[in-house]
Amino acid sequence: MPNTHPIKRRTVLTALGSIPLAAGANANTQNGWPANPVRLIVPFPPAGTTDLIARIIAEPLGHVLGKPVVVENRAGAGGSIGTELVAKSPADGYTLLMTTIGTGAINYAIYPNLTWKPADLTGVSLFTKVPNVIMVPASSPVSSLPELIALAKRRPGSLNFGSSGNGSSTHVTGELLKLAAGIDMQHVPFRGSGPMLIELLGGRLDMAVDNLPSALVHIRSGKV
After folding, report:
1. What DSSP designation does 75 have?
2. What is the pLDDT of residues 191-220, one digit of tens each?
């Protein structure tokens, strides 16, 4: 059902595809919103999946709203810095958050000192769902998941895996693999997919987990 209520509270766009925000936005325009450009905060560095999705939707969303939608990266602390910025912004609909399962749910469980609570954000729309992929650099001696698991069992605790940050879905995926396969690997968190992929391509990570969209170009090129 279209949302016909004006956006009165801080809003959060879920980057996990339809955009039902458009219907609500038309109704809000009738009430004078938006009169100014809208900020779309991405709580991760550029080049990651959340950033890519935000930049894909920003222009068409701006056309619908009649005002520019400006993407702004505010990375750090597993997405908590950007999320805090939005949670503490005026509740006027001009500051939106592109969030993920990490910033929208997991962080509340692993960061005990967050200065906001889930009720400080209002969900607007689920934009997309993306799979995670497990990758190794092209220089790795393994070329399949069974081979990776076998290597990890032969060298317990000596392999590492990179993720886009503590509490991210990529971190959780790596931990689930460890539990399911009965292996021990050291987690190396990064401030987003971009920095992690640089280290993976350089062969300084044994394995990494990423969202498919940001990893796909490297998979197709054969670099991972």
Report:
1. -
2. 888 899 999 999 999 999 999 999 999 999
Residue in this structure with the two tokens 């503590």, named with its chain if needed? 166
d(CA 20, CA 1): 8
Residue for token pair 């080049």: 47
| Strand positions, DSSP E, 139-219 | 160-163, 186-189, 207-211
* Residues 127, 16 contacting (CB under 8 angstroms): yes
Structure tokens at 105: 């749910």
The CA-based angle 165-167-170, given to 5 degrees, is 65
Q: Is the pLDDT of residue 94 over 50?
A: yes
pLDDT tens string 13-66: 444 322 223 222 333 445 688 999 999 999 988 988 889 999 999 999 999 999
* Dihedral class, residue 8 (left if φ above 0, else alpha if ψ from -120 to 50, else beta): alpha
Helix (H) or strand (E) holding 89: none
CB 40 within 8 A of CB 70: yes
Which amino acid makes up residue 22? A
* Number of neighbouring beta carbons within 10 Å of residue 117: 9
pTM of the model: 0.74
Q: Which amino acid is residue 57, in one-letter code?
A: I
Closest CA to 44 of 80, 12, 93: 80
Please, what sign has the CA dihedral across residues 55, 60, 62, 68? positive
Q: Are 104 and 19 in contact (CB under 8 A)?
A: no
